[in-house]
Amino acid sequence: MDSQTNSCYLGFDFSTQQLKVLAIDERLEVIHQNNVLFDSELPEFRTQGGVHVHGDRLTVTSPVRMWVKAVDLILQKMKNNGFDFSNVKALSGSGQQHGSVYWKKGARQVLNYLDPEKPLHDILQDSFAVQDSPVWMDSSTTAQCHNLEAAVGGAQKLADITGSRAYERFTGNQIAKIYKTKPEEYNQTERISLVSSFASSLFLGDYAGIDYSDGSGMNLMDIFSKQWSEPCLKATAPQLRDKLGDPVASTAVLGPVSCYYAKRYGFPNDCKVVAFTGDNPGSLAGMKLKEGDIAVSLGTSDTVFLWIKEPKPAVEGHILCNPVDCQSYMALICFKNGSLTRERIRNERAQGSWELFSNALRSSPMGNNGNIGIYFDAMEITPPAVGVHRFDQHNKRVESFSEEVEIRALVEGQFLAKRVHAENLGYKIIPGTRVLATGGASANKHILQVLADVFGAPVYTIDVANSACLGCAYRAMHGLVAENGVSFTETVSRALPPQLAVTPTPGAQKVYTSMLKRYADLEARVLRESKQ
Ligand code: XUL
């Protein structure tokens, strides 16, 4: 084989519980996978699920040196498994979103001269001003969120700038808390990275810029100008612009890998580091989403990923810069009442049997004769309301539905909600739109049929195991040609396409266009009434 066919690309994922890596070859086939589990393989850091939950139950951190040591370990494991680093043309990666790393004054110098005789965790042991990095599970910054929204003129205003209203886990609010509670450490900080840009800094041997896409999860960046927002910086902490460095395009080649990796592991000297990004943006790349597509993950909570051209930020959901196309955006919407609610209705109305549940879907008509149900067993995120609400064809509240009507009302209601909230953020179904379904319930064709009918688009199923890693291996490959105008979609066109599961039933569009409007009005009514 010539060297061209041996070429490969690495994608890392610094997730909450583990560090993962995956290698693909030129044909986009996965040729190697490895991982390091934080709790069991790095027990000296005493994490549970990769984190420390502090006494107030709200503060959640991870030891930054654990992540550094995980890099030593994963590269060593790859080497022990005979992985040939000399074929790696480019690498990229992702990190859990929102987490922050505080590099101490002088750390850049240390990064620039990494001694290949030593492991990273020895070299960098004194390089952090804050040892315990706040992560996305932290929800201790409510005061900082109020302060930020007030400073810029309210929640919608903040969303108009940064793509999201203030969220406790978002990095700006975490930085504001560090500044308030650890002013000395803040002053000692030379550079603040996200988990993703911290990870790319390790490979680059220099501070790596925060990419536009993960940078959109900070409540600090103007997602339209792709620059830090002065009013947000000002409301957060002093000298923040210098500590953050300039944001970079998500597709950018940051430079060659540090010679540390060439000498210690045998990477080629010209192996490129492509900007790292957040894990959700990484997954969007791994799912090979295209303009107009929508990915629906049907799990404990249901998550929707969208590719959007003209976003309309709102006080619900998140708009992020798109990680594979700088002209576009992506949106993330989380619905709390997913499979637990589907299982409750299956247990109560279909004797616990998915078969009976599916039979009910098959034998009931599209549009459910005008009956609509909203099932928020737990306080919903999108929208923030709770309770079970049933309406008949005249929008009149009713106490109960028959078994068959209830089952269809639940599934239709869940999918109508997804479409309504996606469209609220600027999503448009276009010719060629695909719905990509993943997660437990995506195995049920009858549920997928309702999904196809409500969206009026074909539904494909995809396997998203390690999608963030895979997406970043694709991004590494794309980074090398992005400057020449080659699109990400073109780069991944050789990968296996998703499986077509179902197509919309004729007549579906007519039924659901009017139902969508009714659903939106009824949901707004539920929200209004719940606030009274
Ligand atoms: C997204 C979020 C999580 C983390 C998990 O806003 O907080 O999905 O990215 O790794």
Automatic annotation (TrEMBL):
The UniProt entry, under PANTHER family, shows: SUGAR KINASE, XYLULOSE KINASE
Gene that codes for this?
xylb
Q: Name one GO cellular component term.
A: cytosol
In Pfam terms, one family for this protein is FGGY_N
What is catalysed by this protein?
D-xylulose + ATP = D-xylulose 5-phosphate + ADP + H(+)
Q: What is a single molecular function from GO for this protein?
A: D-xylulokinase activity
Which Gene3D superfamilies does this one have?
A: 3.30.420.40
Q: Which InterPro entries match?
A: ATPase_NBD (IPR043129), Carb_kinase_FGGY (IPR000577), D-XK_euk (IPR042024), FGGY_C (IPR018485), FGGY_N (IPR018484)
Q: Where, if anywhere, are coiled coils annotated?
A: none
Give the domain of life.
Eukaryota
Annotated Carbohydrate kinase FGGY C-terminal domain residues: 295-478
User: In its UniProt record, which GO terms are filed under biological process?
Assistant: D-xylose metabolic process; xylulose metabolic process
Give the Carbohydrate kinase FGGY N-terminal domain ranges.
135-282
Q: Which UniProt keywords apply?
A: ATP-binding, Carbohydrate metabolism, Kinase, Nucleotide-binding, Transferase, Xylose metabolism
- Family the entry assigns: Belongs to the FGGY kinase family.
Q: What is its EC number?
A: 2.7.1.17
State the name under which the record lists this protein.
Xylulose kinase
- In its UniProt entry, the species of origin is given as Chanos chanos
What function does this protein fulfil? Phosphorylates D-xylulose to produce D-xylulose 5-phosphate, a molecule that may play an important role in the regulation of glucose metabolism and lipogenesis.
